[in-house]
Amino acid sequence: MAAPVDLELKKAFAELQAKMIDTQQKVKLADLQIEQLSRMKKHANLTHVEITSLPDSTRMYEGVGRMFILQSKDEINNQLLEKRKTADDKIKELEQKKTYLERSVKEAEDNIRETLMSRRAQ
Fold first, then answer.
1. What start-end ranges are recorded for coiled-coil regions in this protein (predicted)?
2. Are 77 and 52 in contact (CB under 8 A)?
3. At 122, is the secondary structure helix, strand, or coil?
4. Which residues are paired to 61 by β-bridges?
5. Pairwise pLDDT comparison (78 vs 112), residue with the higher score
6. Per residue in 61-103, pLDDT tens?
7. What residues does 60 pair with on adjacent strands?
8. Using H for helix, E for strand and C for coil, what is the string for 23-80?
9. Burial class of residue 66 (count of CB atoms within 10 Å of its CB; 0-12, 13-18, 19+)
10. Alpha carbon 94 to chain centroid distance?
């Protein structure tokens, strides 16, 4: 009778281990993406601060591929604000995803603990 229980527990542990590895990789990826978005946001913020100190008549160019396009100061400021807003939204989304992943792993661990406790009680 002990053999089926052992196989069942072994299978549950194997599933948990696979889930843990997968989740850890996803959490690391989310952390890297958050870090990259934070850098992009900081860069956009610093650029915005520098641009606001320039006079309105300053000619500004935006890099597109291997060329530069003349843009107005307002257009560049709007692009930088949009870039920051997009980065903030993506960071919030990734934080929520990361929290969900960590919670799902904890629930799986708790389920296995409950299974072990019920097996010991029998």
1. 77-111
2. yes
3. coil
4. 70
5. 78
6. 999 999 999 999 999 999 999 999 999 999 999 999 999 998 9
7. 71
8. HHHHHHHHHHHHHHHHHHHHHHHHHHHHHHCCCCCCCEEEEECCEEEEECHHHHHHHH
9. exposed
10. 3
How large is the greatest C-alpha to C-alpha distance in the chain, in angstroms?
A: 85
Token duo for residue 114? 């409950």
Paired tokens of 34: 């958050």
Q: Residues of the chain with pLDDT > 70: what percent?
A: 96
Whether 121 has a pLDDT exceeding 80, the answer reads no
Q: Output DSSP code: residue 1.
A: -
> pTM, whole model, 2 decimals?
0.77
Q: Give the pLDDT band (50/70/90) at residue 36.
A: very high
Handedness of CA 18, 20, 23, 29 (dihedral sign): negative
Strand duo 67-71 + 60-64: pairing: antiparallel
